Amino acid sequence: MLAVSMTLPGIALPAGDEFNLPSLGDTSSSIMSRQQEYQLGRTWLTMLRGAVPTLDDPQLKSFVEDLTRGLAETSQLSDRRLAFVLIDSPQLNAFAAPGGVVGVNGGLFLHARSEAEFASVLAHELAHLSQRHFARGLEQQQRMQVPFMTAMLASIVLAAAGGGDAGFAALATTQAAAIQEQRRFSRQNEQEADRIGILNLEKAGYDPRAMPDMFERLAQLSRYDTTPPEFLLTHPVSQSRMADTRNRAEQMAGTGRTDSLNFQMMRARVQLKYEQSPGLSAKRFRALLDDNGGEHAAARYGLALALSRGGEHGEATSTLAPLLEATPDDLTVNLAQIEIDTNAGRLAQALERNRRLQQRYPDNFPLAFSEADLLMKQQQYAAAERAINRLANQRESDPDVWYLAAEIRGLAGNILGVHLARAEYFKQTGDLQQAGQQLDLALQRAGGNFVVSSRIKEQQNELQRQRELIESL
Prior knowledge:
three-stranded mixed β-sheet, about 475 residues, about 70% helix, globular, single chain
């Protein structure tokens, strides 16, 4: 699969050593308003979700969301209504799309060796958003009408969805009119995103040297690999970019944090997912643990999960036990024990631990999702429905939540609720035809209930507006 960054051409950088942020929102907003960007970006997000496989792991999603929102708090991003998509691919890629859409491939966890390196890529992408490179690209090329640019983004979605030659052909066709100009502005955008991103990385408390470290490793990957990582196809790492970020990092304090155990445990989760079998993962994690005298916490975490997923629940429990003893309140370690207990059929024990943790970590997404799933597995369908409904109210744009909601509501006998949950799921994954069919079925089920029928009709109107927006692209 080829994933292509959705960040587009911008304007030239100011001359001189000092980097001054441009004044935004005037002429670029006359080409495309922030609200238009937002609407287009969210529409493309639903199309992308329906076209590519995504990661449904609540812990990975929560980690990316929390880290990115933390970076956004210290960034120049004025509109912080962010949306996220985690692509199920071991290839290295990340992208930013108009309207605050941030995408990350699972492969970013594999290639970034520390949390600071991981954060450096996301800081770079947030800089693309804060500088509105999409709208400013339109401003620079006013002769290119908005439909031209939307066609380009549609072809990018096709390429990201694994369209192969068709995606490349569509992309080449739409870009042909101004390819040289785009390349020039794209290089300028990358340098601008580097310089703003590294400032934000330091402000967020990370070691800024992580950005040139990441760039240099990427350059090595492209040097020795005939097929460079996906990220490099749209983010080429030149000698000048590496030198510029290295020079800037060395001029900063460099006292920020570089890594965390939580990141390394998330990285272990991703490694476990993309390795051929839990048995092979267990062998590798065990060797890593032995090489470090049993003192490698992330390897112990990964080994415990690999053993459990391979059916060795007793050994998994004893392997994780030292981590639980050392950090009895750590959320990630406790979630691992919940997973082990669930795999072993110890559902009541898993639910008890979950609820104890929720007292310490209220409104935590992975815990809330786990609670609903555990209640469903214990056939406590009414309680499971209440749990998933609470979560759906908090994460109304998360298709994985709506998928579980439809399953739970069906088991609870709430057929109207099933249709409504399915409608939301299909809407969030870009299948508007199926979403419409589910709303029609829901309206029939609502019968003479005026309040419910009115809400469903409003959802139908909203769906129609979304169809019209897509048809206008």
